Amino acid sequence: MTGDVTIGCHQCENCLRGLYNLCLSKTEVGLCRGKDGAFAEYLTMPARHAYRIPDELSFEEAACVEPAATVVKAINKARFEPGAVCAILGDGPIGLLALQAADACGAGMLILTGTIDERLDMGRQLGADVTVNVRSQDLRRIVDELTGGVGVDFVMEASGSIDAVRQAVDIARMGGTVSVVGLYEHNVPELDLGNIVVRDLNLITSVASPTPSSRRSG
């Protein structure tokens, strides 16, 4: 079995709308309000939040189901068109999964940024057309060269870096979309909201991925 990270009460307004990821009294597995995490020897999980693993799926693959569902939801929410120039900021597990989800949804060009060369190499193997190590390369200059100064159609910030949020806004084309899925310890200072408005950017966020009841274990 695998399961959700967010456990909803299924009684509040958000849960009744199917948005148990936004439950007003949610419990998060391994994170808060006393729910044991999956590194425990045993873990109890409400049946409505548990999912059967197909026989052909390995435990290693099953461990990626929840984060993969999270990034697929974020990609679907963005609704970018096939052929779009997409940039994924962050070479961690979420960024690499988002890269594959964007590729599957028909991205025309995929740019992956990060700070670890080994992960960026993995990103190339997973479909990235261009990788950028932001510690040694100028992301804005590279994006301008690739797009003729226009910018990218869709940017997902998946690193949790405050600097990357500003980069995401900076490299997006006018009328483009910036999707923020990273989690941040601090607010983002000096984020020019006027610039976001004048350039008519679509700024969206996404957290977790509520699943229709028909796909649960019962």
Summarize the structure.
With 218 residues, the protein is an alpha/beta fold.
What count of structural domains?
Answer: 2
What structural category characterises the helix and strand content? Answer: alpha/beta
Strand content: 15-25%
Described by strand count, sense and barrel closure, the largest sheet is:
6 strands, parallel
The Cα radius of gyration reads 18 Å
Overall mean pLDDT stands at 90
Task: Using the coordinates above, name the CATH class of the largest domain.
Answer: Alpha Beta
Number of helices: 8
CATH architecture of the largest domain: 3-Layer(aba) Sandwich
Distance between the termini: 12 Å
How many beta-strand segments?
A: 10
Biggest β-sheet: strands ordered side by side in the sheet: 7-6-5-8-9-10
Task: State the helicity in percent bands.
Answer: 25-40%
Broad shape: globular
CATH topology of the largest domain: Rossmann fold
SSE string:
EEHEEHHEHEHEHEHEHE
Low-confidence stretches: 214-218
What is the name of the CATH superfamily of the largest domain? NAD(P)-binding Rossmann-like Domain
Outline the structure in words.
This protein is of the alpha/beta class and 218 residues long. It has 2 domains: 2-63, no CATH class; 67-205, Rossmann fold, CATH 3.40.50. The protein is 31% helix and 19% strand. Strands 7-6-5-8-9-10 form a 6-stranded parallel beta sheet, with helices on both faces. The longest helix has 14 residues, at 65-78. The protein is globular and about 50 Å long.
